[in-house]
Specification:
Strand content: 15-25%
Oligomer: single chain
CATH topology of one domain: Trna Endonuclease, Chain: A, domain 1
Distance between the termini: 208 Å
CATH architecture of one domain: 3-Layer(aba) Sandwich
Length: 259
């Protein structure tokens, strides 16, 4: 017959109950350990979450800074776009101004060409007038010099004075304004003259060169004469020092009765 305990339980049942209780106690102990482990994991997760939130906060701050930087960049881009547009407008105005200047340049060139042509015509007119005045003075000198040279130097003129060309070589000629021959103090001389509206020192120098050429061509002694409307005392002295006789235009007006 099975043994019983003081509580009325058989020993087998008692052992079974103790075994069940021991198993539950062990289960409870394991559960507590797991719970402690879980609490530790939860704490780690909480810390990780806190770190994640901090990183998210910093990331959010960076994103905000980037957004502000983007806003500033867009603002600068808008300003730059405006500047580019202003530069484009300025370029258009510059191009228009350049076209205006080019057109003005064309008009200026046309006017300059007209002025150049007018200046050329004026010079031709003045040149023609100068020639007319010069020829007029030469004509008066050719008419009056025979009397003046006879009166002042006792020269006898062989034939009327002329305006002509002297042949220096075949097909090469030297123009002379006043030319003729005469006899003075028993010497036969060639009379060479020029007429200038206003006698300058350079005219005297040029006449000396003409004298040298004519002397070489004719092989004769040259009697040089210059006729002018006006000459300074200095120029007249320079001519006299070279043996050149200078007559002023009013000296050519000889009274008809004295011829």
């Amino acid at each position: 017959m099975p043994q019983t305990t003081g509580q009325g339980l058989t020993s087998e049942l008692y052992k079974t109950i103790v075994a069940i209780v021991d198993d539950r106690v062990r289960e409870i102990r394991v559960t507590r350990e797991e719970f402690e482990d879980l609490k530790e994991v939860v704490r780690e997760l909480a810390k990780a979450q806190a770190r994640t939130e901090q990183r998210l906060d910093r990331l959010a701050e960076k994103v905000e800074e980037l957004a502000e930087a983007q806003a500033r960049t867009e603002k600068r881009l808008d300003s730059l776009a405006q500047k580019v547009e202003e530069l484009a407008e300025a370029q258009k105005r510059t191009e228009a101004r350049v076209e205006e200047l080019a057109e003005a340049q064309k008009k200026t060139e046309v006017k300059l060409a007209m002025l150049t042509d007018e200046h050329r015509k004026t010079r031709e007119m003045l040149g023609g007038l100068a020639h007319t005045v010069g020829y007029r003075l030469e004509d008066e000198a050719i008419w009056a010099l025979p009397h003046l040279l006879a009166r002042d130097f006792g020269m006898e003129i062989e034939k009327p004075l002329v305006r002509t060309f002297l042949e220096a070589a075949p097909n090469r000629y030297v123009e002379v304004n006043i030319w003729g021959h005469g006899v003075v103090d028993g010497r036969r001389v060639a009379i060479l003259g020029e007429a200038k509206s206003q006698l300058k020192k350079r005219d005297v120098d040029g006449f000396l060169k003409t004298m040298a050429k004519v002397r070489e061509i004719s092989g004769m002694e040259i009697f040089p004469v210059l006729v002018t409307y006006q000459a300074s005392p200095k120029v007249r002295q320079a001519a006299a020092e070279k043996g050149i006789k200078v007559y002023l235009s009013y000296e050519l007006r000889i009274p008809r009765g004295s011829l």
